[in-house]
Structure formats: C-alpha cells, structure tokens
Amino acid sequence: MVRRKLVLSFPENIVTSPITYKLVKEFNLEFNILRAEITPDMEGKMLIELRGDKALIDDAIKYLTDTGVSVQEAAKDIIISKNKCIDCGICTSICITQALTLDSSSFKLKFNKDKCILCELCLDCCPVSAIKVHI
Ligand code: SF4
Ligand code: SF4
Fold this sequence. Notes:
With 135 residues, the protein is α+β, with helices and mostly antiparallel strands. It is built from three helices and eight strands. The chain folds into two domains: 2-73, Alpha-Beta Plaits (2-Layer Sandwich); 77-134, Alpha-Beta Plaits. Helix content is 19%, strand content 33%. The strands form three sheets. It has a four-stranded antiparallel β-sheet, covered by helices on one side. Strand 2 (30-38) and strand 3 form a beta hairpin. One iron/sulfur cluster is lined by residues 78, 94-95, 97, 99-100, 116-122.
C-alpha cells in the first residue's frame, strides 16, 4: 500500500460530477479530502490523500486526467520568507482560499497554512520572490 498526496483541479463543467466516488468504487482506493474549495469562477480545487495499490493509484490518476481533472503532486509546503516579504499584498489577491491575507491593523502579511491547498498560484506573483515551495 502506498500514499500519494495530490492537488486536483476540476474545471467548471465537471465540478459537480461524482468523480472521487469512482476512486473508491472502481479503483479500490481509500482517500481523505484534506481541503476543498470552489473558486469564484467555479473551478474546484481539492487537496486529497490517496492510499492503495501503486498501480491502481496510477490508473486512477490516468482516469482523472482523461476526465479533464488536472492532477499535481502535493508533497510540498509553501514557505514565505519573512526577511524578503515587503507586505505589498499582491499575493493576497491571487490566493483563492484566502490563506494569504493582510492583517487589518498591522498591514503585515499573514499566512494560514491550514487554508493553503498548494495550488502554487502565488509563486510567480511576488515582486521580491519571497514565496517558495519546499519539496
Ligand atoms: S499555494 Fe499560494 S495561492 Fe495557493 S492556496 Fe496556498 S498560499 Fe494560496
Ligand atoms: S507578494 Fe511577496 S512581498 Fe508581497 S505580500 Fe506577498 S509574499 Fe510579501
């Protein structure tokens, strides 16, 4: 039995389809939904941990991508360098889950790891390269 942590992105046309149900029924996998969000433009994002036979997990990932789901490995953390960050707030407008916000009194950047779904959308927006992924 192996474990894989993945970020799944569901486009609007399949966001309400019972796709994850099939992971259990057809591929005999166990899964934990660690975080899930639907963005304002109706794209679904889900951080999921799959457990099961390695070959069946590979088959399930192929099934997901064939269905139109984007699949990305999520064995990473987002790291914000406090030394580099200038609290400009640009990343807060990119972050769909509001894991990145500016504190309303200090105007300092706050990062709530529990809300982060590791979508990596924030990585390229920082003007001082303060955001990195830790693999
Ligand atoms: S990776 Fe960045 S943009 Fe995506 S949820 Fe985490 S903090 Fe927000
Ligand atoms: S974009 Fe970069 S510098 Fe600006 S608040 Fe976010 S991490 Fe800090």
